[in-house]
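R.M. (postdoc): so does anyone remember the format we settled on? I'll just put the structure tokens first.
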């Protein structure tokens, strides 16, 4: 990884001596546009601080970096303000720092990260989704991934049984509630019935257009 620029060394010196609030008043001088490039600058600043102020090498950074480290280095507020992470990693900010610094060792997989959050929601380890989880550019895709897990957890005897069950509005609404998918449905499918959400979530080898048309017609007939 490249050495830290003189500008970013100066940036860190300001952060360490005056704090993030004082820095914010001067941020125009440091091209503070959020995004991947600035995320890389922040990650490099963290690595620089760990190396020169704590005496850590890369192995120690990988092993010991945590939020307490950021507080010690007076970077915690700065990172929380400017460092951007995908919604599905909102609770794993340090991992994203390590991913940027050491991408070959700290890999990122969108589907796995999304399911990690949803699994914690289902198991009660998290009481709410990260902010804008189902609203951002990938919000619809997250909604589909979560529905796939919900269908797997519930268990259905066949693909046709899935379509048949969701043609019943009472069952469909209860399923959405029981599996904590209210926001996923509202933000992405509120103008459609739940079956449409389920149909689009099914993997291509399970999705059945004929069954979808057949049981969608049953919903319309009931209405």
């Amino acid at each position: 990884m490249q050495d830290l620029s003189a500008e970013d060394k100066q940036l860190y010196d300001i952060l360490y001596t005056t704090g993030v609030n004082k820095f914010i008043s001067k941020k125009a001088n440091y091209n503070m546009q959020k995004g991947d490039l600035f995320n890389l600058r922040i990650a490099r600043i963290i690595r620089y601080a760990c190396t020169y102020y704590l005496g850590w090498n890369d192995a120690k950074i990988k092993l010991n970096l945590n939020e307490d480290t950021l507080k010690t280095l007076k970077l915690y507020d700065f990172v929380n303000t400017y460092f951007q992470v995908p919604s599905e990693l909102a609770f794993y900010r340090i991992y994203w720092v390590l991913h940027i610094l050491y991408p070959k060792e700290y890999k990122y997989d969108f589907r796995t990260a999304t399911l990690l959050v949803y699994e914690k929601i289902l198991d009660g380890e998290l009481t709410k989704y990260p902010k804008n989880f189902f609203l951002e550019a990938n919000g619809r895709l997250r909604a589909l991934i979560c529905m796939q897990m919900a269908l797997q957890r519930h268990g259905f005897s066949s693909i046709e049984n899935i379509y048949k069950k969701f043609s019943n509005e009472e069952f469909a609404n209860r399923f959405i509630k029981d599996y904590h998918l209210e926001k996923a449905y509202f933000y992405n499918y509120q103008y459609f019935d739940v079956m449409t959400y389920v149909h689009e979530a099914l993997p291509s080898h399970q999705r059945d257009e004929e069954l979808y048309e057949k049981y969608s017609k049953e919903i319309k007939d009931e209405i």
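R.M.: ...and that's the designed sequence above, right after the tokens. Also worth knowing: The CA atoms of residues 14 and 26 lie 10 Å apart. DSSP finds 14 helices and no strands in the chain.
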